[in-house]
Specification:
The strands form two sheets. The protein has a two-stranded antiparallel ribbon. It contains three helices and four strands. It has two domains: 104 residues, no CATH class; 30 residues, no CATH class. It is flat, with a radius of gyration of 23 Å. With 140 residues, the chain is an alpha+beta fold.
């Protein structure tokens, strides 16, 4: 190593846990240890958002060689990401707020079924492989 480095160690013990968790950050910044950990943890959170965009909304898949088409596709994907983020914050319970788009798609949005009208009743018929098939006894 040709440049001096600082090692910042964050120790935390979660509630009802016996062991202490250590986080090591090696840096050349001269900020206070509290500000360094805050900066790096915020950076890690942002990288998780980027990863969700890449894998859940195909931010990184540009299929055309034309800049304008790729820019338009990326903007549409970002709009979809923002709509999903707003949906999570406004409509989902707190337990689902931290879920990735794939989980939300599988658990909420992607439910195969159809509505069948018979007489004066409407019936919602689920796929035979649906997870929610037996949630309510009167659903076929």
């Amino acid at each position: 190593m040709t440049h001096p480095r600082r090692v910042v160690v964050k120790m935390e013990r979660l509630k009802d846990e016996l062991l202490v968790q250590f986080t090591f950050i090696v840096t050349n910044m001269s900020l206070s240890p509290k500000n360094i950990t805050k900066l790096y943890f915020n950076r890690g959170t942002m990288e998780n958002y980027i990863k969700e965009g890449k894998f859940g909304f195909a931010f990184g898949k540009m299929t055309s060689t034309e800049f304008e088409r790729n820019a338009c596709k990326l903007q549409i994907a970002i709009i979809a990401y923002n709509r999903h983020s707003g949906f999570k914050r406004l409509c989902l319970p707190d337990a689902m707020n931290t879920k990735l788009i794939d989980t939300v798609r599988l658990q909420i949005i992607k439910i195969a079924g159809k509505i069948v009208r018979s007489g004066r009743y409407l019936r919602f018929k689920l796929s035979s492989h649906s997870l929610y098939k037996r949630v309510n006894g009167n659903i076929d």
